[in-house]
Specification:
Layout (H helix, E strand, L loop, with lengths): L3 H24 L9 E2 L2 E5 L10 E5 L3 E2 L6 E3 L6 E4 L3 E6 L2 E5 L5 E2 L5 E2 L21 E4 L4 E5 L9 E5 L2 E2 L7 E2 L5 E2 L13 E4 L1 E3 L5 H39 L1
Antiparallel strand pairs: 1-4, 2-3, 5-18, 6-17, 7-8, 7-14, 9-10, 11-12, 12-13, 15-16
Helix pairs in contact: 1-2
Length: 248
């Protein structure tokens, strides 16, 4: 069998993996705070007896992430908040502390401040944030959480805590299957008082729909070319076997 089939099959497999990543990016193009995932491959020479020096295969490398911020969109919702510049919100997960840029917050049945996926948002002291029942919530530019109770004097706003805002080195962050980012070994980043937020805004996904569509089309064409190589190699093998059988 012509070994080119293995080379083309490896390329086709990497193309399918990349298509899955691109499809996930497209599905999250409207997800607040989403960071575009990058599928990276590298060429690997095939070493062995009687191997051509030009024959190479491909393997997937550690997936990357495009960290450029998304566009800020004004919503006017009291529970929406966006980070200005660099930084992350800290949330609680079963695996420990994790980080997100999605500031579409809500209050759950236990009166805890949570993300849209139900993850408790953490305060500067690393604890879940409990919101007084029927309280009106506002955020300060430094992440301070202010609450006005129902029927209270507007001048009697109480600060009940502060969002934990962190800014660990981007190269240390590891993306999880849940879309959240974490530090290795479950480490917790310290709060950074220099990070500011804007209330009534959310940060949109940094995925470009147009570029993602072009990537999907290019991937489909690349996959078809790789499959054509496999079909041609298989056809050549059949013709060669036919000739050998006839001569025999």
């Amino acid at each position: 069998m012509d070994r080119i089939i293995y080379t083309a099959a490896a390329g086709a497999a990497r193309t399918l993996e990349q298509q899955a990543v691109i499809s996930n990016n497209m599905a999250n193009a409207s997800t607040a705070g989403f960071r575009e995932q990058l599928a990276l491959n590298r060429a690997v020479p095939i070493v062995g007896e009687n191997m051509a020096h030009t024959r190479v295969s491909t393997v997937a490398t550690t997936p990357g992430t495009r960290m450029q911020p998304g566009v800020m969109a004004e919503t006017g919702h009291a529970l929406d908040v966006a980070i200005r510049g660099e930084g992350w919100f800290a949330v609680q997960t079963p695996e420990g502390e994790a980080y997100t840029r999605a500031g579409e917050f809500a209050v759950n049945a236990e009166n805890l401040l949570v993300t849209q996926t139900g993850r408790p948002v953490l305060s500067a002291d690393g604890a879940p944030i409990e919101i007084p029942e029927r309280g009106t919530l506002t955020f300060g530019v430094d992440g301070a959480i202010n609450v006005l109770g129902a029927g209270e004097n507007p001048r009697e706003i109480q600060m009940i805590g502060q969002l934990k805002l962190v800014n660990p080195p981007e190269e240390q962050l590891v993306r999880g299957d849940d879309g959240l980012f974490r530090l290795p070994q479950g480490a917790a980043a310290p709060a950074d008082p220099a990070i500011g937020v804007v209330s009534g805004f959310i940060e949109k996904s940094n995925v470009s729909v147009a570029e993602t569509m072009v990537g999907m089309i290019n991937n489909a064409r690349r996959f078809e070319m790789q499959m054509k190589v496999i079909r041609d190699a298989s056809g050549n093998e059949e013709r060669a076997n036919s000739i050998l059988s006839t001569n025999g």
